[in-house]
Write a structure and sequence with these properties.
Largest sheet: 7 strands, parallel
Strand content: 15-25%
CATH class of the largest domain: Alpha Beta
CATH architecture of the largest domain: 3-Layer(aba) Sandwich
Distance between the termini: 13 Å
Helix content: 40-55%
Radius of gyration: 21 Å
Oligomer: single chain
Structural class: alpha/beta
CATH superfamily of the largest domain: Glycogen Phosphorylase B
CATH topology of the largest domain: Rossmann fold
Number of strands: 13
Amino acid sequence: MTIIHLVLGKANPERMNGVNKVAYQLAKTQWELGHEVVLWGIANDLEHNYPERPFKTELFQQSGNKLRLDQRLREAVMALPKTAVVHVHGAFIPEFYLLTRLLRKQGIGYVLTSHGAFSSIAMQKSGWRKRLYFSLLENTVVNDANAVQLLGDLEYRSLDELAEIEHKVLIPNGMDLSELPEIADRPTNPALGFGFCGRLDIYYKGLDLLLPAFALFLQKGHEAKLEIIGDSPDRPKLELMAQELGIAQHVIFYGAKFGDEKFRLMARADVFVHTSRSEGFPMAVLEAAALGLPCLTSEGTNINRYIKQYEAGIPMDGPLKVELICAAMETAAKKFKDDKLRPLGLNARRMVREAFDWRKISEELVAVYAGSAKK
């Protein structure tokens, strides 16, 4: 069975695109497990400008016309054996609609992972446009897939509002502990340190709630700092928001960081914070947990049930709002004062090791592919 991972981009793990990171890690792990794996990327350019990887990568030109596929990509699909399975990463992408139509015409199965795009919260942004697109195009992609992988509970439930299907599976993302550097010189913070790492998308990441919540937390007399790793066009707005809230001296914006530098900065925190309205399954939370950081997370991250099961942090229940986040920060402050954060961090690392091993997740997906290949 040939496994093709299809992404928009090049699956470069040294970028802030979580979808590409996941596709890279799955391809790498499945290749290490002995499977025939190729990654296909639809990209703006065909330069192989990413770190060396063990599996084969084919790049195809992204057209200015999203309703047209690269002829080389069409030919690659038609050359696939009938036993191949294509794992499509992403939703609401016109090129993927065209490609899945071609796959069906050729009798080749595919598995779809929307990476959070079908959650009720994600569907609210540009809502009527997304629902129109879904009814016209995406609905066909979902229904014709041999399986639809949902990463978290929220999206798994939400999909029923769009399309009631039986071929959906709930399989989360994973984490490779060997990627992390050994960090022996972690600082002891005199005041509580909160950390965030990820794409600075104000709406999806709930950053318009995180900064006011942190301001309220400080107004209540607590001492703390918030270190933010990541970048996007929204960063100037967030820096201005911090100034207007009067907390700029307590907030550090590092910009985008990668590799060991990123992990060492993340490890400076006492608590990792992710207040997302909607996610697929955030790799940053898994990375933080793997570093031994307790995680303060919203329902939208899809990881709360694991945080609760392993007692690995401070999960927030209920509608996301400033007061809820502030209250969770106050819980973290009390645990910091009572020296009770370290056990949560140890539990977080155990959670990653037991529940989010990439080899286990890769094998689960290979079993899904095998069922797809038979159809």
